[in-house]
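Task 17 of the worksheet. Students: predict the tertiary structure of the chain below and write it out as C-alpha cells. Keep your answer in the requested format; marks are given for formatting as well as content.
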Amino acid sequence: MPSRRKWWACLLWAGLAWASAAGLQAQTVSVRDDTQHELRLSRPPERLVSLLPALTETVCALGQCHKLVGVDRYSNWPSAVQALPRLGGGLDFNLEGVLALRPDLVLVAASSPGQQRLRALGVPVLALEPRTHADVQRLLLTLAQVLGLPAAHAQRIWRDIDSGVSAAAQSLPASARGQKVYVEVGSGPYGASEASFIGQTLARLGQTNILPASLGPFPLIQGEFVVRAQPDVIIASHSSGTDIAQRPGWAQVAAIKTGRVCAFAPAQADVLMRPGPRLAEAAHLMAQCLLTGSGGKP
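Model answer:
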C-alpha cells in the first residue's frame, strides 16, 4: 500500500512538473527583429527603454506606457512619457543611463550602432525601424507579441489607423486630387519619396509625389529638381517653410507663387514625420493642407 501511494505521489509530481514546464514554454516568446537577430524572452518584459519615438508611441498605443522607464530625447508623445528619464538620441544614447534603469528590454532603431554593445552586456534588445505602412502594422503585431498581448488587440488598433487614413482620403473632393506634392523632411534638403510611409499616405490621398520611389524613401535632393518638378503644394516643417522661398530659383515654383506652402509647427511636424500609430492624424493634417494650402500655426 505504501508503494502504491508513493507511485501516485511520483505521478502527481511528474504531472505538476510537466504543467509548470508547459506553462513556461507557453510564455516564452521568440521573435526576429529587423536586423535578423532572434530575441527570446521567458516572460513579457516589465521594464522597457525605448530609443525611437515611433517605438515609444507604439508601446503607448498598445496601452503599455506604464512599462516604459526611459526614452530617447525626441520621444514626447503621449504626455505621460515626458516625465521619464531622457537617455540621449537613438544613435548616441547614454549607455550607462540605460543600464542604470535595469530594463528587461531595450527597443532601438535597426540602424542604431549601439545595439551590439547592449547585447554584449547581456541586455535584451529588439531592433525595429518602420518605414512603410506595412511596417507600422507589423510593428504593432510584433510588440504586442513581445508584451504578451493578444494579436487581435494590435489588429484592432491597426484597423482604426487604416480606417482613419481612408476617412482622410474620403474628405478630399475630386478637385483636390492629383496635385503634385513635395514633402520636405529635413535640411539638406531631404524629401519623402513614393517609397516612404509619407509617400504612401500621399498616394492614398490621391496625390502625385514629385519624388519617385527609385530615389529611396528619404533622398537627399538638389533644389533644381524641385524647381523643375513644379509642385502644386509643398509640405514642410515650420523651420524649413519660413525660408523656402529664399532658396535660389524657388520663387518660381508654382506652390510658392500661389502661397500653397504648408509649414507645420513642431508638434504637428512630429505627427507627419513619424511612422507610428498617429498615421491617421498625419493623413488628416495632409488633407487639410491639400484643401486649404496652409499648415499648422508656428
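Marker's comment: The chain has a mean pLDDT of 90. The two ends are 86 Å apart (CA to CA).
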